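Hi V.,

You were right to ask for the full record rather than a summary. Here it is.
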Amino acid sequence: MVKACEVSSGVALHLVVGFSVTYTMTGSIAAGGLVALVEPLCMVVAHHFHDKVWHGIKARRQPQPQTVAA
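Predicted structure:
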């Protein structure tokens, strides 16, 4: 339950900051709302590829098992 609250508050904070920054820069409620909705969706896709890259880096750093010739 605590984890769900943490994630929810993080999402809410992300949306509020995205809206606030865009509204402050443009003065447009529509632009602020659009950025607040579109930017997190883009981050989901970017985060997926970010994780794939790091999993690949970690996999390459793992020691490879040695095979013994018979």
